[in-house]
Amino acid sequence: MNTPETTMPDRAALERQEAALEKKNKWMYPVVITVLIVIFAAGFIYGIQLVLNMEGAFPPVTLTESKTPAPETNAALADYLNAALAAVKTEKPAASYEWKFRIDGNSVTTDGSDALKKTLVFLIDPAEDSVSGQVEKQSAAFGEALAALEALPTLTEAEIGSFTCDYIFYRCPSCGEESAAPVEACAVCGSDRPYDMRYRDRYTFTVELADAPALAGRLITPDPDAVKAMVTPALADFAALNGVTSETTRLSLRFVTDRFTDALLSLSVRKDVNATAGLEFSGDLAALGAAECGAAISQEAVYAFTWPAIALNKHSLTLAPGKKEQLTAERVCDDPKAYAITWRSSDENVVTVDDKGYLKAGKTAGTANVTASFDFNGKTYTDTCAVQVKVSVEYIQINKHRLTLGVGDTETLTARVAADNKGFALKKPTVQTVSWYTTDDTVAAVDETGKVTAVGAGACTVYALSDDGYYRASCEVTVNE
């Protein structure tokens, strides 16, 4: 058997290969490092460019009007409340009623000792619970009448003293801080932009009623004699009550409605009185003797109403072509699981929806309404989500951030939008147009093409706002004489 002949590598050839490899490595490492540095630098510069261009989104504030404008006169308020009460009695939402008896501990007075006063304040909580518990709470299911409602008569214009309606508030466009009054600059986040005016979904009315004993008797039960009869047993274990007097100091009501449906959500009627009485203590408190005592006491009748409804988790939604998302719907009724939800799309070429609320966007841009509905007690309740299918703008870039002109000079700025905040997405946005604005047209004017005309000496900001997404990019303009 012949053994294969083994050829040994040439030492000189190996030495030449090692020398060549070493020479190659000497120039390769610096090249790789240089390339990495260039890439890092380019990324850093590009990142700065993004930061300079990304000023954020500035969507306009849309104020949704109410079904009924907020009443401005006593007559209008009386009509509005009476109509809301009539709807409750006719349509019979689920309802509850509770009567509350309260004593203001800070108002307690006595001609006795400090120890007596402290004892009276200590006894307030159990006394309130004992008296309040003597009036039975009421509730009514959907479709049932609430007996306590029959005690609520209609109000007249003359019975209303004054009122306020709370639904307008103001919000910082940068951080969301809220205020009841207009604010020019936000102290929380430092933004110099004025707060936007907003509307809440509900009207909240506070009504001062006329000082009329007859009116108080119509609105608040039980009457003073009945309240005295309730209080007496609550005190029986430690004191006797005599010489009770009371004076009504305020009669008011507070109610809340849904602005979009005028449905009454809650109503409370309150009577405040200053009461005085003689107390003769007995039993464990006999050492306190007798004293004249007084306190501010309130009676409040509280009504709450729950209306049948269906509510989607979103009322507007944007989807990219081909994308999916699920809507959820909450039913308000006696047994939500017992009532099926029907889903439909107003345009299935734009978006389809299945029986579970799953949406699938079509391949072309458009807008469709997706509606969820269910039937309950002979009525159909619906809620709708507006679905827009499009490639959204998420980035805007302007070609110059600073511009210096002389009076009469012109220059045209350009702005481009992209479908992501990196600025180079492959898909183009569905809406690619921008609108141009100036903060001071006495310094520089701008037309719809981005052409800036220097008008007068000074400084201002010219900015482009994407028509989709409302992303903003600005150029600081200085005009010299």
The average pLDDT value, as a whole number, equals 88
Helix % is 10-25%
Tally the helices: 6
Q: Which blocks of ≥5 consecutive residues have pLDDT under 50?
A: 38-52
The major β-sheet equals: 9 strands, antiparallel
How far apart the termini lie comes to 105 Å
Tally of individual domains: 3
* Tertiary shape: elongated
Structural class determined from secondary elements: alpha+beta
Task: Please tell me about this protein's structure.
With about 475 residues, the protein is of the alpha+beta class. The chain folds into 3 domains: about 75-165 and about 200-305, no CATH class; about 310-390, Immunoglobulin-like, CATH 2.60.40; about 395-480, Immunoglobulin-like. About 20% of the residues lie in helices and about 40% in strands. The chain contains 6 helices and 27 strands. It has helices at about 10-55, 75-90, 115-120, 125-130, 215-220, 225-235; strands at about 95-105, 110, 140, 160-170, 180, 195-210, 240-260, 265-280, 290-305, 310, 315-320, 325, 330, 340-345, 350-355, 360, 365-375, 380-390, 395-400, 400-405, 410, 415-420, 435-440, 445, 450-455, 460-465, 470-480. β17 (about 365-375) and β18 form a beta hairpin. The longest helix is centred in the first third of the chain and has 43 residues, at about 10-55. The termini are far apart.
